[in-house]
Amino acid sequence: MYLTLYAASQRVLCGLSREVRRHAIHLIPAWYSIEKEHLIAELKAVPKTAITADGWTSLNQDHYLTVTLHYIREGIIKGRVLQTKAIYEAQRGAAVADEIGSILDEFKVREKVVAATVDNAGNMDDAVKKLNVQKMQKCQTVSNWVARVRAVVIWMKRSHMAKVVLKEKQRLLSKNHILILLFHDIILI
Questions:
Q1: What is this structure's pTM?
Q2: Quick one: 110 and 153 in the same domain?
Q3: CB–CB of 124/93 below 8 Å?
Q4: In this structure, how many other beta carbons lie within 10 angstroms of the beta carbon of residue 51?
Q5: What is the largest CA-CA distance in the chain?
Q6: Residue 167 and residue 134 share a domain
Q7: Is the dihedral of CA 62, 2, 114, 100 positive or negative?
Q8: Which stretches within 45-175 are classed as H helix?
Q9: Which of 99, 105, 106, 103 is nearest to 124 (CA)?
Q10: What is the pLDDT of residues 133-164, one digit of tens each?
Q11: Number of independent structural domains in the chain
Q12: Does 19 lie in the same domain as 97?
């Protein structure tokens, strides 16, 4: 969340005078603190959450970990990047689990996390096990849905009749979705 706010603030700051930028730079940490407190307050009413965690390496060989929280609030699916942080320890599963756990503790959601999505790196698998959270790729229901969605996407990309068939199905079901096909990407709005 901080890096997102920081990037947005840098775009805003570029058009400001040097004097204004000097003062605005001190406001960014305060802005982050306010947004963080709003998010923590919003999450108090959320009973269950899921996370996505990813470890990555910059071009300078610096290691980072990003943790994103997913939840439903008032019927709306939301996702918030909790933190992207530099990692200075070895990337073993236990260390990654500790880092993810500290981020979840900071936002007071550790006990609310019921599922995680991570890449197939061994250290991330170990971290999910240590956090005692179900890895979503291991869930049979999710795997079945992923296979079905993948089949539909492949069909939509390869078949010239796919758009026609989908529009007809929507008409028959009286669905008012707008179908947009751009460069073989499917977006239902």
A1: 0.62
A2: no
A3: yes
A4: 26
A5: 62
A6: no
A7: positive
A8: 93-106, 122-131, 140-158, 162-172
A9: 99
A10: 777 665 666 667 667 777 777 777 777 777 77
A11: 3
A12: no
